[in-house]
């Protein structure tokens, strides 16, 4: 090429073949060889001339039955190029277009071909996207419909690989989903703060990944019409977004000079969440069994290991109902890290008058189980004790007032009894 390259496209039916389009008004076909020593060699096998302005996008057919390539340009035309002579070439092939149509009123920015090679979609700065029937037998185009609704130029348009839908991304910060049978807009996704430059449907038509000119990536739930994840992927415009064939990874390229590979961890995350749920249920069953068997000492240590404040509270309350002072013996068996967790929980319980008695009992047993020197060796012990002071003062004042009120009632009752005599 003699000017900037604007797009690349690989042939699904030949991993060694790709095409590049350029601002020099041409696109070139390349054959790549991968040697055992990992050396990559690219050979030019064909060139297409005929556009009178930048060739903005090229796309290969998805099937090898009728091999062709489609190109669009800023000259507002769409061209169809048969590739049946590619295998028979003896020198660089000069492609001849079999069909040319003026597709839009302004620059054409995007292009995609359906999986069955019967339709292609184009988007333009004229705010529209258009569908085109591809007659593979005659290698011609016919108009397939217009997709309207955007208020600014369309930057990307792509077919869903698993449903009869097309998505369009626009400078109006919106993504629209169109039904192929009716050509109607069935959903509009809003939330991007800047122009949406790319979009692709994934996960069997359930989600959309999109990118914008501010460097953001968003993942959308189509059924709920809402964004479920936003990632600050790049510092500048994300010009390219491409999904791997197995949808396990996708690639983004930005004007910040970076190309990034992203991995879909949804399945791994679901498995981790399921494992956590199963582990939680298992631990809860162990705790319940220990409490039912009145093994409170083991249950207390286990709940502290799991960091379960509510379970720990129930266990201490169960110990308080026993005649023997099991809490004292349980506290003496705790390790330093478990003791820190217990005191932290107790400080939380102390903030509520309904559980303050449990907190005070825990603190009492701790202070009577260890020497001051041992307690001061516990990390953050001083701050844990300080957390007790404000609420303990309030509880003391409340109990003092209650005691005074009770004494006043007793005095009043005694005076009433004397007067009756």
UniProtKB/TrEMBL annotation:
Pfam family, one: Utp13
InterPro entries: Utp13_C, WD40/YVTN_repeat-like_dom_sf, WD40_PAC1, WD40_repeat_dom_sf, WD40_rpt
GO process annotations (BP): endonucleolytic cleavage in 5'-ETS of tricistronic rRNA transcript (SSU-rRNA, 5.8S rRNA, LSU-rRNA); endonucleolytic cleavage to generate mature 5'-end of SSU-rRNA from (SSU-rRNA, 5.8S rRNA, LSU-rRNA)
Main location: nucleus
Lineage of origin: Eukaryota, Metazoa, Ecdysozoa, Nematoda, Chromadorea
UniProt protein name: U3 small nucleolar RNA-associated protein 13 C-terminal domain-containing protein
Alphabetized SUPFAM superfamilies for the sequence: WD40 repeat-like
One term under GO cellular component: small-subunit processome
CDD domains assigned: WD40
One Gene Ontology term of the molecular function aspect: U3 snoRNA binding
Spans of repeat WD: 1-33, 48-91, 101-142, 147-188, 189-230, 231-263
Origin: domain of life: Eukaryota
């Amino acid at each position: 090429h003699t000017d900037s390259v604007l797009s690349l496209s690989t042939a699904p039916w030949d991993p060694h073949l790709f095409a590049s389009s350029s601002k020099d008004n041409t696109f070139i076909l390349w054959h790549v060889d991968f040697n055992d020593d990992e050396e990559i060699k690219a050979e030019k096998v064909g060139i297409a001339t005929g556009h009178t302005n930048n060739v903005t996008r090229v796309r290969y057919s998805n099937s090898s039955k009728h091999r062709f390539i489609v190109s669009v340009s800023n000259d507002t035309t769409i061209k169809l190029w048969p590739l049946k002579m590619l295998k028979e070439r003896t020198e660089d092939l000069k492609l001849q277009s079999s069909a040319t149509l003026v597709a839009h009123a302004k620059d054409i920015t995007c292009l995609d071909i359906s999986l069955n090679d019967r339709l292609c979609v184009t988007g333009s700065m004229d705010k529209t996207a258009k569908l085109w029937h591809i007659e593979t037998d005659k290698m011609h185009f016919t108009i397939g419909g217009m997709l309207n609704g955007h208020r600014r130029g369309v930057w990307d348009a792509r077919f869903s690989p698993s449903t009869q839908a097309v998505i369009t991304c626009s400078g109006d910060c919106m993504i629209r989903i169109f039904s192929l049978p009716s050509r109607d807009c069935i959903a509009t996704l809003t939330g991007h703060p800047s122009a949406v430059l790319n979009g692709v449907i994934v996960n069997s038509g359930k989600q959309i990944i999109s990118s914008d000119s501010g460097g953001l990536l968003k993942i959308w739930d189509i059924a709920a019409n809402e964004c479920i994840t936003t990632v600050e992927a790049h510092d500048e415009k994300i010009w390219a977004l491409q999904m791997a064939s197995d949808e396990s990874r996708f690639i983004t390229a930005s004007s910040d000079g970076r190309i990034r590979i992203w991995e879909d961890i949804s399945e791994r995350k679901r498995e981790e969440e399921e494992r956590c749920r199963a582990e939680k249920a298992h631990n809860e069953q162990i705790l319940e069994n220990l409490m039912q068997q009145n093994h409170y000492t083991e249950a207390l240590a286990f709940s502290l290991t799991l960091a379960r404040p509510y379970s720990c509270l129930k266990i201490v309350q169960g110990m308080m109902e026993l005649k023997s002072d099991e809490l004292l013996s349980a506290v003496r068996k705790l390790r330093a890290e478990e003791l820190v967790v217990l005191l932290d929980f107790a400080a939380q319980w102390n903030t509520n008058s309904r559980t303050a008695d449990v907190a005070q009992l825990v603190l009492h047993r701790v202070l009577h189980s260890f020497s001051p020197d041992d307690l001061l060796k516990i990390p953050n012990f001083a701050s844990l004790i300080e957390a007790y002071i404000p609420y303990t003062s309030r509880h003391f004042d409340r109990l003092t007032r209650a005691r005074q009120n009770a004494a006043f009632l007793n005095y009043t009752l005694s005076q009433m009894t004397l007067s009756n005599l």
